[in-house]
Every structure is written in structure tokens, then in C-alpha cells.
Amino acid sequence: MVLTKTIEASIQKHARPFKNSEELTSALISEVGDVKYVLLGEASHGTSEFYTNRTEITKKLIVEKGFQFIAVEGDWPSCYEVNRYVKGYETSYSSAKEVLQAFNRWPTWMWSNQEVLELIEWLKEHNETQETKVGFYGLDVYSLWESMEAIISYLEKTQSPELDRAKKAFECFEPFHRKPEQYGVSAALYGEDCREEVLALLQDMLAKRTTHTHDDEANLNLVVNALVTANAEYYYEAMITNDDQSWNIRDTHMVEALEHVSNFYGENSKGIVWEHNTHIGDARATDMARSGLVNVGQLTREKYGADNVYAIGFGTYQGTVIASTKWGSPFEIMPVPKATKGSWEYYLHQARLGNSLLIFNEENEKEFAETIGHRAIGVIYHPEYEHMGNYVPTIVSKRYNAFIYIEETKALTPIEVVNTII
Fold first, then answer.
1. What's a BP term from Gene Ontology annotated to this protein (predicted)?
2. Which helix (DSSP H) or strand (DSSP E) does residue 406 occupy?
3. Is the torsion defined by CA of 90, 208, 146, 41 positive or negative?
4. Among 340, 331, 383, which residue's Cα sits nearest to residue 113?
């Protein structure tokens, strides 16, 4: 009870209630300062308010702070098509909805939704008036086959002498029929992997690549697709043998991809990252550290300095969410039950301030230094069992620079996709 009252009092003292996104973004923008990266989290991959508030924060960072790109927890090839669309490059897509419908890897709703559609439409319109156009990129490692196809397409367009060698190297993956779990089992249990030949190809190919003036991002696209191909091969094998290692491979890859995008925009580039709280909140402030896990939040702070990274977490007390009951299943609108008693979200509710923003700083960080359960909902969710595994032990003031609390949230709105791939 003493702990409860202490946390409630600290929240009431330091939290800033907000009525709308304008109040929220205005309060945040002055706190961000001149950082290189702003990391925007979410407590689920299916909550409308997390997406809409990140959108408004992102717009303000672009317009008022000069941020040049958005990097998300999505596949590079699909996100690169969005990038081409919002920058006005030649593309086969005629609308934002059409380009988002091409996000055909499960869980499709993460990026193919109405909330992201509105952001993409805004980016397209904004870029039409800008000399330096804002980009949109995917940092994730899952798109092994799509990235290989993109490399082949690049080599064909450039009439590269490496084309036949690449086709032969990638044939190694054909027996697995675009099923990464099949490849992972084969590589892990039978030693039948494609790594040596593919890595040698990619190293030679990148060393010999040619700069193409007709598309100044062609080389960036090639480099990151090559990075995905190399790391995805390693990731899928590790999934079978060591899940902790596969997590670290994935988050390390995302930081590597982020660095390539940043380098493309120059030494003083500034980027906005959209990922789940479990990726953007510093792993050292959670029980992940005891398992040897790292994440994007930790690695970027270590690589660029804590003063150059501003991490913002999100959470809710109750509502609804889009998720599935098992991997590859159709999505459902599920209830988000009231937060478990004694959790971070429970205390925010008990403070009775409604939607609010907490800024952590030297003045108050010790008041939020207790380890406390903090809700995390993934693409697989069972609300009836969430008290058994959906709360991450967290020192909130060390995990984030700021935290946005929404009292009650609703599920986001997916848009129809085509040719769904699991």
C-alpha cells in the first residue's frame, strides 16, 4: 500500500494531462531537444491511439525539427515501395491505399491500416512542396525471399556480371518454398544452410556495385536488401536453436539498417523510429538484461550516446486491440482488460488524471525507479491469460525518456490486403 500511494503521488505530481494531440505534441516537442533519433513505441501492434498519436508527433518533428525519415518495424521491400510513393519516384502504385495493400506478410494489419494510410497521404502531400523529401523505411529482418528478389531485379536492371552467380546462390533456398521455418530446421538440425555461398556473393556484389544517377536510392536499397538476406538467413536458423540469440540478431540488424539509412541522409541526419515498446525501451531497464537480450533502445543509446536518443513509451489501462490467437491466424478485435493490480498502467489509472504525459528527468527519475510490471501485447494475444505473461518487469524512468498514457484505447482499422503470405 505504501508503494501504491508513493507511485500515485509521483504520477499526480509529474504527469501532464492532455485533452488532444495538439496539447500532447506541443508538450513533447520542447522536451525532445536536438537529438538524432526519436524512438516512438507502442504497447501493442493493434491499437489506434498509439498509431494516431505517433503520427501527430511525427508530423511535428518533421515540420518543426527537420527530421528526414521514418523507420519502422516492417519489411524493407514493402516499406521501400511506400518510400518511392511518398517521394514521387516512378512506381506502379497510384494511391496510398494501393501501396499499403501490398503489405502482404502476416501480420498484415500492422502497416496496412487506416491510421498508417493517413500518415502516408500526409507524407506524399508534404514531400510535394519540399526539396529534401522525407523517407519511409522498414528495419526488420523477415523479408528473406523478397530481398533476394529485389537483389536479382537490381542486377538485371544494371546488367551486372554477378546476375548468374546470384541466381545460382539463391537457388539454395528454393527447396524451402518461401517457408522460413523449414529453412531454419534444415540449417539448424541438418547443417544444410546456404550461408557461405550467399555471404561471399553479397560481399563481392557490394564491393563492385555501381552508383546509378537515375535513382539516388538504388544503392541504399541494394545494401539493405543484402543486409537483410545475410541476417535473415542467420536469424531463421537461430530461431530453431536459440530464441534469445534470434532476438538479438533481429534487433542488432534493425540498428544496422538504421545506420545505413542515416548515412544516406548525411552526417547530421535525424530519424524517427516506430517500433514496439519492447524494442525501443532500453532493455537494460527490464528483465531482458538478465537473459542477455539487447534491443534497439539499448543499442542506439550505446552507439550514439543517450543524449542523441529520445525514447517514448506508450500504454493504456483498457480497451480493444487487433491481434490473433496464434501465428498466421486471421486477426480479431479483442478486449484489453483492465490493467492488473500493481502494474504501471494500474497506477496511472489510479492517479485519475486521464490521458497524460510523463517526462522523466534528473528531478524525478528516482521516484519512478522501482521495478514494476509494464504491459506488453504482441501480435499473438490471449486476454484471459495476460496476467501470466504480458507484464514486463521494468524501471520505467530508465527504460524511456517519456511515457504517453491513454486511459482507454480502441483497435485500429485494417484495410484489405491482397495475396496474403504467412
1. response to antibiotic
2. strand 402-409
3. negative
4. 331
Note whether residue 419 is domain-resident: no
Identify whether 415 is part of a domain: no
> For the segment 175-187, what is each residue's pLDDT rounded down to a tens digit?
655 655 555 555 5
Cell of 355: 490521458
| Euclidean distance between CA atoms 214 and 210, whole angstroms | 12
* ∠ Cα 243 245 249 (to 5°): 115
Cα separation, 149 vs 170, in Å, equals 9
* Boundary residue ending a domain (194, 223, 257): 257
d(CA 210, CA 79): 23
Tens of pLDDT along 352-379?
999 999 999 999 999 999 999 999 999 9
Residue ranges making up the domain that contains 191: 144-257
Same domain for 207 and 312, yes or no, is: no
Q: How far apart are CA 300 and CA 322, in angstroms?
A: 29
Q: What is the pLDDT of residues 379-408, one digit of tens each?
A: 999 999 988 889 999 999 999 999 999 999
Residues near 15 by Cβ (< 8 Å), separated by ≥ 6? 348, 351, 353, 356, 357, 358, 405
- pTM of the prediction? 0.90
Q: What are phi and psi of 98, to 5 degrees?
A: -65, -40
Domain co-membership, 298 together with 375: yes
Is 125 found in the same domain as 50?
yes
Rounded-to-integer distance, Cα 113 and Cα 48, Å: 9
Q: Are 195 and 83 found together in one domain?
A: no
167 and 45 both lie in a single domain: no
Torsion of CA 159, 164, 169, 175, to 10 degrees: 110
Give the number of domains in the chain.
Answer: 2
Are 349 and 377 contained in the same domain?
Answer: yes
Do 54 and 134 belong together in one domain? Answer: yes
Beta strands of 199-245 (E only): which ranges?
none
207-210: Cβ within 8 A, 24+ apart = 208/160, 208/162, 210/158
Encoded amino acid at 116, one letter: V
How far the first Cα of the chain sits from its last, in Å, is 47
Domain end residue (candidates: 257, 278, 301): 257
